[in-house]
Amino acid sequence: MEKLENLILAAAGIYKQPELVDEIITLQEELNQQIDKQINQQKGLACQKGCSYCCYGWNVQMTIPEMLMVIRDLNSFSPEKRIKIADRIYEFSNLNDYDGVACPLLENSLCLVYKSRPFICRTYSSYDVSLCENRKEFVFPPFVEKIIKDIVLPFEENIEEPFRTLFETKVPISNIKFDYHRGLFYLNLANTIKIIPTPEKTEISPLEFAKKYLQT
Ligand code: SF4
After folding, report:
1. Among 36, 54, 55, 59, which residue has the most ligand 1 atoms within 8 Å of its CB, making it the best to mutate?
2. Distance from the CA of 109 to the center of ligand 1, in angstroms?
3. Residues in contact with 108: Cβ distance below 8 Å, sequence separation at least 6, in sequence order
């Protein structure tokens, strides 16, 4: 309950100050840079461009700032391509079983939002591609746990509530929404506000709970 309250409070804050969306995205970009720095120092990883075994079989979870980044990137594609991606996400969101199913953001073995990919995709690291290919379980290298302990958790602790909850809450990729009328992807934040981030600007509008929780 506390989590939902914080999400609604964060939504109220963003509704009053839409520029907070850019600040949240900038913070997430800074965090991603720190994570990438650590990953780039690792030797012997099998992960490389075009290898996408890890993009099959799950509904990837991401934090709300990560989803805002992903949506902003998706909104930079052409209108035709956006509709294609939206249809794929919609079909994906209706599945009960993801076994063997590609992530809807995978195209020609490449991630459409590679620069903005969420933490789990960014840090999914393997030293043996045959384990990924054969879908064998493997233990993540210890540096991933170290990244969480030394970088992610201290980063989150520095953010004040209610906005910290945005960085701690995970939502599945199937929750990315598409407004077919506008032709744009958006985030539904706690049924309180609709956030449409695009590379040019961010639009915010009230949703169902706004009447109850915001002064609209
Ligand atoms: S978001 Fe990108 S990297 Fe992550 S599973 Fe989907 S296609 Fe793969």
Report:
1. 55
2. 10
3. none
Amino acid in the structure at residue 116: S
What DSSP element (H or E) covers 63?
Answer: strand 61-63
Instruction: Return the amino acid letter for 137.
Output: E
pLDDT tier for residue 137 given thresholds of 50, 70 and 90: confident
Coil vs helix vs strand at 47: coil
Percent of the chain with pLDDT over 90: 88
For the residues 175-193, what does the mean pLDDT come to? 97
Is the pLDDT higher at 142 or at 209?
Answer: 142
| Ligand 1 centroid, distance to 49 Cα (angstroms) | 12
111 close to ligand 1 (CB < 6 Angstrom): yes
Distance 72 CA to ligand 1 centre (A): 15
Tell me the average pLDDT of the chain: 94
Report how many domains make up the chain: 1
Helical ranges in the chain per DSSP H: 2-16, 20-40, 64-74, 79-93, 119-123, 129-133, 142-147, 153-157, 163-168, 210-213
Q: Residue 174 in contact with residue 92, Cβ under 8 Å?
A: yes
d(CA 209, ligand 1 centre) in Å: 31
Mutate to test the pocket of ligand 1, among 121, 171, 176, 185 (most ligand atoms within 8 A of CB): 121
Write out the residue range of the structural domain in which residue 174 sits.
2-213
